[in-house]
Amino acid sequence: MTGPGTEGPLSGWRVGVTAARRAEEQIALLERRGAEVEWAPAVSVEPDRVDEAGLRAATEQVIAAPVDMFVATTGIGVNSWFEYAEQWGLLPDLLAALGQAEILARGPKSVGALRRAGLRELWVPESECFEDVLTHLRGRELTGKRIVVQEHGQSLSTVANVLRSQGADVQVVTVYRIEGPEDQAPLFRMVGLIAEAKLDAVTFTSAPAAASLLEAAAALGRRDEVVAAFQADVVATCVGPVTAAALELWGVPTVQPERSRTAAMIKMLEVELPLRRAGQTLSVAGRSLLLHGDVVVLDGTEVHLPPGPHAVLTALAVNPGHVVSRRDLLVSLPSGQATTEHAVEMAVARLRAAVGTRLVQTVVKRGYRLAVG
């Protein structure tokens, strides 16, 4: 842990940093703004591990048969793969094999890497989330199609199995692996600080770091506590949508800047944290709704909500006006209290009984939303 920061817009706030590389830059940005920083790298600070023999064998396998579709997931992964292929004298054959395929790129960095190699993508999701790639392919006839998926630091075996279930022949090419931290003691300490709401915010700059922290919390038997803390007291701050998706998968609400840059993420905290301390005030169905931790105030009167309805209200207030599915609301309910979506319906009914039926709207076949405005 670093010492307390100087006076600045983040003075009095305590922020956890999970980055391994370039962490010093992020810590300096926070401390210059007055924040007290707790640092616990969630992944290894060493370079990503490349199994060169395995990558070469996979490359030769890609070249050996026609490729119908190629999915590029990361710029660094594409660049590294092509660099190794060049060393082996296989780059021209690899580019020829991929060049005849329909190319999907997950985001702008992979697009840049492809174009530098003379390849052209046919489709890119706006979100940079792999879920949208799967949505794009869902319903398409993939029987007999040979699909090559470039894997980033985390396993994409689930993605491959989804495509195989549609009849595709899928080859996953693992370019590199991101390992966990060598010393997990700082990460375990951060898990405790989050679970006990002793941090105001935690920053994440990679999906593997987010996944690693939740895995550490699970190993300690504290994942439910960590998720609950993020839902109520600790701001999960992500550099971009790909990183956020790794947390939102577990029901963790996140905030992120418009531009996926570390400096923009830190700048956003200058606005976000003071708002959290002051409480979140919403205009819902013509009424004033204030949320501040466990406190709910409706038109100036405090409303006491049981844990289930409070969890639903908190989840709906993360993105006011946006629809939240029953499945996502089920994840947000306190651990051990719900196993089916019927529990969500009961929690919504109790919430409406406490705050009024007009504040929470049902969106048929989709879920619920707050009637903001």
Overview in brief:
44% of the residues lie in helices and 17% in strands. The protein has 373 residues and is of the alpha/beta class.
What is the strand and helix layout of this fold?
Blueprint (H helix, E strand, L loop, with lengths): L13 E4 L5 H10 L3 E4 L12 H13 L4 E4 L2 H13 L3 H9 L2 E4 L2 H9 L13 H8 L8 E6 L5 H9 L3 E6 L10 H11 L5 E4 L2 H13 L3 H10 L2 E4 L2 H8 L5 E2 L6 H17 L1 E5 L2 E6 L2 E4 L2 E3 L3 H12 L7 H7 L8 H15 L4 E4 L3 E4 L3
Parallel strand pairs: 1-2, 1-7, 3-4, 3-5, 5-6, 7-8, 8-9
Antiparallel strand pairs: 10-11, 11-12, 12-13, 14-15
Q: What is the terminal separation in angstroms?
A: 43 Å
- What's the story with the biggest beta sheet? 5 strands, parallel
Strand tally is 15
**Share of helix, binned:** 40-55%
Encode the helix/strand succession as letters. EHEHEHHEHHEHEHEHHEHEHEEEEHHHEE
Approximate strand percentage: 15-25%
The CATH topology of the largest domain:
Rossmann fold
Helical segment tally?
Answer: 15
Oligomeric composition of the shown chains: single chain
Which parts are unreliable, with pLDDT below 50 for 5 consecutive residues or more? Answer: none
Q: What structural category arises from helix and sheet content?
A: alpha/beta
Shape, per Cα inertia axes: globular
Sequence of strands across the biggest β-sheet = 2-1-7-8-9
Instruction: Count the domains.
Output: 3
Measured on Cα atoms, how large is the radius of gyration?
Answer: 23 Å
Which CATH class of the largest domain? Answer: Alpha Beta
Q: Would you tell me the overall average pLDDT?
A: 88
- Known CATH architecture of the largest domain: 3-Layer(aba) Sandwich
